[in-house]
Amino acid sequence: MRALDRKLLRDLAALRAQAATIALVVAAGLGGFVGSLSTVSSLEDNRDAYYASARLADVFATVRRAPEHVAQGLATLPDVAEVQSAVMFDVQVDRAGVAQPLTGRVVGIDPARAQRGLNRLTLRSGRWPAPGTTEALVSEAFAQARALRPGDEVHALLDGHRQRLAIVGVALSPEYVFAAAAGGRNDETTFGVFWIDRERLAAAFDMTGAFNAVALRLRAGASVPAAIGEIDRRLRPYGSRGAYGRDEQPSHKAVAQELREQRVFGIVLPSVVLGVAMFVLHVVLDRQVATQREQIAALVALGYENRVVVAHYLKLALAIAAAGIVLGLGVGHELGRQLTRLYADYFRFPDFRFALDAGTVVGGVAAFGAAALAGAWSATRRLLSLSPAQAMRPPSPPAYRPLLLERAGLARHVGPRVRMILRNLERRAVRAALTTVGIASAVAILIGGTWWGDAIDTMIDRQFAAAQPGEVFVGFTGPLGERVVHELAALPGVLRAEARRSVPVRLHAGHRRERTVLSGVSDDARLWRLVDAQSRPTRAPPTGLLMTDRLASRLGVVAGDTVRVEFLDGRQREVDALVVDLTHEPIGLGAWMDEGALRALAGDGAVVDAGALAIDRTREAELFAALKRAPRVAAVFVKSALIEYFRATSARNILIFTTVLTAFASAIAVGVVYNSARIALAERAWELATLRVLGFEHREVAALLLGELALEMALALPLGFVAGAWLARAMTGMMASENFTMPTVILPGTFAYAGLTMLAAGAACAWLVQRRLAALDLVAVLKTRE
Q1: Are 640 and 617 a contacting pair, CB within 8 Å?
Q2: What sign for the dihedral angle of Cα 703, 709, 710, 715?
Q3: 123 with 140: CB under 8 angstroms?
Q4: CA angle 703-708-713, nearest 5°?
Q5: What does the pLDDT average to over 727-746?
């Protein structure tokens, strides 16, 4: 073994504690980077493979009712390669032993052709339904949530008639990877998809020989917007609700949004960790090189070339980084597996496999390896610029001068020990500043990764407490007259009933157009309210539109402009409307009008399509039983159940992410704080030992050293809080989509959690350093100067 290689091993042994903390920082950064981005890659691979095998359509459209020959006519369009029509309806579903009404989407299929065509089903268990029967397949998520298996049964209100659906199998569909009811509500415990014989479903809803949904596959290279325009033109006479591409398909959009968020987490936070790792490695190696300046000078004087000496220290850096990289790849693989398992509960694919992405691994290893080399090179090049004779001399002592506090005449207000602490920090201001920044970075990472739990709580409060104070919401089978409000009010346990109208529309502004929902708002509504960004009740303008700022931005309009409103409720009606004002809404691209103004604009009278109820919770069971028998109620949503489900699933996700990020942030804090304290101890060992000989007690000497750490921690916490808030805002902007923006809300509890975590990490480091200080050999240390 070469002499320098033996020296390398000795140096690593002497630096084992510091090397271990650096390796932890590298492992945290690389593990987060590799795990998060490999999860995104795996999710994309699973999605794309499933879409290809199940032949997910490119364009989707719904109509009120169209004869089957219209679908055949769509196949003749030049951009269309394949067409598949369908019949589907949202209905109430009753499961024995479940008091709350459930919502089901019943889709008609041809059992003989179920494995051909577009949007193919994947049978997970059981068998296919027999033709001419009400046997049904059920979506896997709902089946698992409600313990449904082949041989069980549910009852559904098909066009007002209670029908028994015999469950014969469990299936997956590429259209419902993320299954959500109308309005985007996702709760697998209350919403499920059922596939039954198309002829039986069509007969129940008077749809024989007709369809109300169609899926189309386009030819390679076809223009999606052009195809949608032609499809809309063909379907408009039959009550078209507007065709849309795969990017607007609800399930695909939900998956794409989650991928975007995970990619941001996987890039931003590990990038901060990378910078911290490079800083810690530089500090440690800089100290190691400084303590070996005489050895380096001797090596050069003995004939070792500069490049050989540099390579020696680069190998030292790479050895430390390599340990962190190996550990980081293991952490990344396990993190990716856990994230993939988490997503498997939300997104339903036939195969949900995780694999480390080769490109991500290579990029991550290269980035962290380069950081290690940069840290080593910056620490080594300074000494190599000296001649051997200069390097063999001890470094010039720092220039001492009175403290800023002393020059300001305030020194008499602090004791001698505090002055000693402040003096050392001021004379090593750059190092103290870098240590403070490193600790602040750990605080920022912890806040930047956990704030979204506060944002979710804020959105729940805004959406359900402020905007929708009602307790039970119902969706009707179609627009109904206002007298339905009195019928709802007469149901058992109902204290107040309200109804509203929401119309699917397409807004046009020049060449731009956007699909959205135009909702009517009543000034006297109590259970459905329009609120501003501060969750305060507000009113819709008496005439004209109020829309979200994101919708206005996509349309390129401002308040005072006019847009064309195309109604997509089955009627061929287009009118102009003035944009009166804009508002900020975190979810959706919504638009609102005064209830009376909407009626006038729609031109179809006083009709409503949904209701909200305030109820007596002691009579909830009676109300649910009555709603199950209501033939014109297609869907029921119980707010308390939806919030409970949402909080339960969010709590699990938050717990996982918080645990991972706490471990990462703690590793960074330990790496920064411990190395800083160890370096300070090594540099000041002679001074501290002298104080012990002069009669200072151990705790007094320890207070001098650890006081610096405490002051750096005290400065780092508020800086980290500010940096964490900035990081959260930056991530909000990067994760924002056209339909969703997470509000940047950080509650005091999150700041407290981040601060206490860092204090705990600092206390652990202080304990370790204090032990080393207690073990100092005073005689050996004092001989060093001689």
Answers
A1: no
A2: positive
A3: no
A4: 115
A5: 73
Q: Return the structure tokens found at 281.
A: 């490695």
Q: Whole-angstrom Cα distance, residue 28 to residue 331? A: 8
Q: How many CB atoms within 10 Å of residue 291?
A: 13
What is the Cα–Cα distance from 174 to 56, expressed in whole angstroms? Answer: 6
DSSP-derived pairing of the beta strands 494-500 and 607-615:
antiparallel
Tokens of 5: 């290689």
DSSP H/E element including 594: strand 591-594
Report the run of H or E that residue 620 belongs to, with start and end.
helix 620-628
Cβ atoms of 705 and 684 within 8 Å: the answer is: yes
Residue 393 has pLDDT above 70, yes or no: no
φ/ψ of 582, rounded to 5, equals: -120, 155
The answer to whether 472 touches 633, Cβ cutoff 8 Å, is: no
Residue 328 has pLDDT above 80, yes or no: yes
3-state SS assignment for residue 589: coil
Query: Among residues 564, 572, 43, 741, which one has the least CA distance to residue 339?
Result: 43
What is the enclosing helix (H) or strand (E) of 360? helix 358-384
Pairing mode, strands 59-67 and 135-139: unpaired
Contact 170, 143 (CB under 8 A): yes
pLDDT digits (tens, 9 = 90+) for 185-197: 667 788 999 999 9
Pairing outcome for strands 512-521 and 591-594: parallel
Sort 483 into a burial class: Cβ within 10 Å, 0-12 / 13-18 / 19+: exposed
List strand residue ranges (DSSP E) for 114-209, in order. 122-126, 135-139, 153-158, 161-172, 191-197
How many of the other CB atoms lie within 10 Å of CB of 396? 6
- Least confident range from 45-49, 214-218, 252-256, 560-564: namely 252-256
Split at pLDDT 50, 70, 90, the class of 462 is: confident
* 638-671: pLDDT as tens digits: 888 888 877 777 666 666 777 777 777 777 777 7
Q: Give me the pLDDT at residue 408, please.
A: 60
Q: How far apart are CA 664 and CA 153, in angstroms?
A: 48
- Strands 135-139 and 161-172 come out as parallel
CA distances from residue 24 to 30, 442, 470 in whole angstroms, order as listed: 10, 13, 50
Task: For residues 555 and 672, give the distance between their C-alpha atoms in angstroms, rounded to a whole number.
Answer: 49
Read off the tokens for 1: 């073994």
74 neighbors 216 (Cβ within 8 angstroms): yes
Top mean-pLDDT range of 29-38, 51-60, 304-313, 524-533: 51-60
Give, in order, the Cα–Cα distances in Å from 60 to each of 225, 228, 240, 501, 508: 12, 9, 11, 24, 20
- How far apart are alpha carbons 279 and 289 in whole angstroms? 15
- pLDDT class of 128 with cuts at 50, 70, 90: very high
| Distance in angstroms (rounded) separating the CA atoms of residues 379 and 383 | 8
Structure-block tokens of residue 595: 């209830």
Integer Cα distance of 360 and 589 in angstroms: 35
Side-chain-facing half-sphere of 265: CA atoms under 13 Å: 27
Burial of 425 by CB count in 10 Å (0-12 exposed, 13-18 middle, 19+ buried)?
Answer: buried
Strand ranges in 219-359 using DSSP code E only, listed in sequence order = 244-245
CA distance between the termini of the chain: 33
